[in-house]
């Protein structure tokens, strides 16, 4: 054959064969549920499901050690669940007369976010929950027990919060706030596999520097309810 064009074709053939054998090997080590999920994905008109369990977590995300099976739900059903969670939280906020400056709830296509200020959650200078903080956490427990969602608890601080006893940096303080909430939820029966905590310290301030309430606004604790399958697309919890 004239020229070297055959070499390109041969290289493409070898590459395709390598990919084929790699696919065969991956299938040989996959469990039945993974194979069924792949088959459903490539079946025309198949309904998307999130029932594949993998020991390494979604999208190799190291923060998720396992993904429990979820019932197959349509987009409409998922949206209705998010709306129901927002309504439940707002009803609690109104019934408990929680000031709007101390709390808030928002929703987007990924999940539902509830934020609470530290003065509402904790007794001054401690990580001991106030009565209002316990009621708020009890409401979170109800949501976790009723809906098939995962939860990220985010701890924050204000830039001025330094030198707190037992917390050499803002990172430890933010982490302690989030972890205190997680410990309470687990003690009340929430599955530990559905909950994790993240510390942001003062890297995500909510209030402007000239806001007189910036310390409590920035030192908030956030509760982010979400479906597990979105973890592979969410950057920064």
Summarize the structure.
The chain is of the alpha+beta class and 237 residues long.
Report the radius of gyration as a whole number of Å.
23 Å
Q: Look up the CATH topology of the largest domain.
A: 60s Ribosomal Protein L30, Chain: A
Strand content: 5-15%
Note the overall shape. Answer: elongated
CATH class division of the largest domain = Alpha Beta
Mean of residue pLDDT? 77
Assembly state (oligomeric) = single chain
Distance between the termini: 57 Å
Name the poorly predicted regions.
Answer: 44-71
Structural class: alpha+beta
CATH architecture of the largest domain: 2-Layer Sandwich
How can the largest sheet be summarized?
Answer: 5 strands, mixed
The CATH superfamily label of the largest domain reads OmpA-like domain
Q: Give the total of beta strands.
A: 5
Listing every helix as H and every strand as E from the N terminus to the C terminus, the arrangement reads: HHHEEHHEHEHE
Number of helices: 7
Indicate the topology:
Blueprint: H1 5-29, H2 32-41, H3 75-95, E1 103-107, E2 111-116, H4 118-121, H5 131-146, E3 150-156, H6 170-187, E4 195-201, H7 214-218, E5 221-226
Parallel strand pairs: 3-4
Antiparallel strand pairs: 1-2, 2-5, 3-5
Helix pairs in contact: 3-5
What this model shows, in words?
The protein folds into 2 domains: 5-53, no CATH class; 75-232, 2-Layer Sandwich (60s Ribosomal Protein L30, Chain: A), CATH 3.30.1330. Helices cover 42% and strands 13% of the residues. It has 7 helices and 5 strands, in the order αααββααβαβαβ. It has a 5-stranded mixed sheet. α6 links the parallel β3 (150-156) and β4. The chain is elongated and about 80 Å long.
């Amino acid at each position: 054959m004239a020229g070297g064009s055959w070499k390109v074709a041969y290289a493409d053939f070898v590459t395709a064969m390598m990919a084929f054998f790699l696919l065969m090997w991956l299938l040989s080590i996959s469990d039945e549920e993974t194979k069924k999920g792949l088959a459903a994905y490539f079946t025309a008109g198949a309904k998307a499901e999130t029932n594949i369990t993998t020991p390494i977590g979604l999208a190799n995300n190291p923060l998720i050690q396992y993904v429990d099976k979820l019932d197959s739900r349509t987009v409409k059903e998922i949206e209705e669940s998010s709306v129901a969670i927002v309504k439940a939280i707002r009803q609690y906020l109104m019934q408990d007369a929680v000031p709007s400056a101390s709390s808030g709830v928002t929703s987007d296509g990924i999940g539902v976010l509830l934020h609470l200020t530290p003065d509402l959650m904790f007794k001054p200078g401690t990580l001991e929950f106030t009565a209002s903080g316990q009621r708020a956490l009890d409401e979170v427990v109800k949501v976790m027990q009723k809906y098939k969602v995962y939860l990220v608890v985010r701890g924050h601080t204000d830039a001025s919060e330094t030198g707190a006893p037992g917390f050499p940096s803002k990172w430890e303080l933010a982490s302690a706030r989030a972890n205190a909430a997680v410990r309470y939820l687990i003690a009340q029966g929430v599955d530990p596999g559905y909950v994790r905590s993240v510390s942001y310290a003062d890297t995500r301030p909510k209030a402007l520097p000239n806001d007189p309430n910036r310390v409590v606004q920035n030192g908030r604790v956030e509760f982010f309810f979400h479906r597990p399958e979105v973890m592979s697309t969410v950057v920064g919890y």
